[in-house]
Amino acid sequence: MKRTFFTIAIGITSLFFAQAQGNIKFGITGGLLNSDANIDLSVGDIFDITSIDAVNETGFYIGVISDFEISDSFHVQPELTYGSAGDLSFVYLPVMAKYYILLNKLHIQAGPQFSFSSNLDDIKGAIQDIDGVLGTNSNLDDVLKTVGIDFGFGAGFDISNQFTIQARYAFELTDRYSGPLGNSLDIKGATLNIGFAYFF
Length: 200
Hints:
The structure is a single chain. The chain is an alpha+beta fold. The protein is built from 3 helices and 8 strands, in the order H-E-E-E-E-E-H-H-E-E-E. Strands 1-2-3-4-5-6-7-8 form an 8-stranded antiparallel barrel.
C-alpha cells in the first residue's frame, strides 16, 4: 500500500511537469492544523447506533509546495507536508487544482489528498473501548489502515508573487477501519489547514 501511495504521488507530479506551460514555482508552506476523527457504529450500515468524536486536536503542519501554471487562471498545486495534532501525526500529499477568480490574486482550490498516518494512538484508544464492549478483541495494529484518500477544497489569496495565504478543509473518502466489525464500524477523519506558502 505504501508503494502504491508513493507511485501515485510521483505519477501525478510528473504529469503536471509535462503539462505546465508557464511558470513553475517551488517553496515552503506551514500553519495551523486541526485534525478531527469520528468513529461511527451502526447496525449493518443501515441505521446509526452511536458516533464518537475520537479526536479533535489542534497542531501544526509544515512542508514543501509547488505551483504549476497551466494557464493564466488555472494552476495545479501539489504539496508534501507533515502534520501533528495531539497524538496524531500524518504525512499529507494534497494535489489541488487552483482557479483564479479575481485579479489573479484570489483563487479557489479543490482536489484529492493522500494521507499517510505514522501514529494512530488517539484513535486506537477510542476504538479499544468499543472492542472491549462488543467482545471483538481485535489487534488494532492489524485493523487500522495507515493510508487514506481525502477530498479537499478551499481558497487562497496571493499577497505577492512569492507569498500566499490559504485555508483548506479535507474530509476522508476511505474508511480507516478494516476489522471484524466490517460495515458496522467506520473511522473517518477530516482536517482544516490555515496557513501560508512562500515561493522562492
